[in-house]
Automatic annotation (TrEMBL):
Protein's recorded name: Crp/Fnr family transcriptional regulator
Keywords, alphabetical: DNA-binding, Transcription, Transcription regulation
Naturally occurring in which organism (per UniProt): Symbiobacterium thermophilum
GO cellular component, one term: cytosol
CDD domains reported in the protein's UniProt record: CAP_ED, HTH_CRP
Domain HTH crp-type: start-end pairs: 146-214
Source taxonomy: Bacteria, Bacillati, Bacillota, Clostridia, Eubacteriales
Gene Ontology molecular function terms on file: DNA binding; DNA-binding transcription factor activity
Any matching Pfam family: cNMP_binding
Residue ranges annotated for the Cyclic nucleotide-binding domain, each copy included: 12-115
Keyword hit for RNA-binding: no
Gene3D superfamilies: Jelly Rolls (2.60.120.10), Winged helix-like DNA-binding domain superfamily/Winged helix DNA-binding domain (1.10.10.10)
UniProt cross-references to PANTHER family, sorted A to Z: CRP FAMILY TRANSCRIPTIONAL REGULATORY PROTEIN, HTH-TYPE TRANSCRIPTIONAL REGULATOR ARCR
Length: 223
């Protein structure tokens, strides 16, 4: 896949003309990061946006007591840090590379120069920032109102909606999922087992197949 093909595959740049894509490609910088690298920390100035070309990036917040809440683990084709494009505010969370990765990096100032000249790019950015803000809101809501089974069921259903299929590629370890829903790795494994035994899901390696959405929603208290 060429750089232009990769850019076309990204939600932020879909629908752009060849001329617009060429301008975007000119300000992109490909960077290689080793596992464990911190891309940015919560509160750092929002200076860059990252797109995962290869590998994975974990986005998380750290509470005052040092406990981490994983917000999401993003794989190829996803952006990290996009919300700072709205107002250049500090990063609201931290991001760490969880395996050796290749990322495309854009300076926020460079993208902001192009944004007013492309209605398509501006519309895409507006839509994606809204999605990321809703994701953060939904995660907070899940932690407040659902038990562990309900939180994991909701996460699987949300991922199925995002991927447009009832066959979900998790792209996360059980430990990372545990960090997202506020529980332990052992509990995630046990709850997935409960979902399998009740016919809600099937597990095929790193993929989860939602076999009965109605039953899965029942774990969330929905009828």
């Amino acid at each position: 896949m060429t750089d232009l093909d990769f850019l076309r595959s990204l939600a932020l740049f879909q629908g752009l003309s060849e001329e617009e894509l060429a301008r975007v490609a000119a300000i992109a910088r490909e960077r290689h990061y080793r596992k464990g690298t911190i891309l940015f920390s919560e509160g750092d100035p929002g200076e860059a946006i990252y797109f995962v070309k290869k590998g994975r990036v974990r986005v998380f917040r750290t509470a005052a007591n040092g406990q981490e809440q994983v917000l999401r683990v993003w794989g190829p084709g996803h952006e990290v840090g996009l919300v700072v494009l709205a107002d250049k505010a500090p990063y609201p969370a931290s991001a760490q590379v969880t395996e050796d990765s290749v990322l495309l990096v854009f300076r926020v100032d460079d993208l902001l120069q192009i944004l007013p000249e492309s209605r398509t790019l501006a519309a895409n950015a507006f839509c994606l920032v809204g999605q990321r803000l809703r994701l953060a809101r939904d995660l907070a809501h899940d932690l407040a109102v659902h038990n562990t089974h309900g939180r994991l069921a909701n996460l699987l259903l949300r991922m199925a909606e995002e991927q447009g299929s009832n066959v979900i590629t998790l792209g996360m370890t059980h430990q990372e999922i545990a960090g997202m829903i506020g529980t332990s790795r052992e509990t995630v494994t046990r709850v997935l087992g409960d979902f399998r035994r009740t016919g809600c899901i099937a597990v095929r390696g790193e993929q989860v197949v939602i076999q009965d959405e109605r039953k899965l929603r029942e774990w969330m208290g929905e009828n």
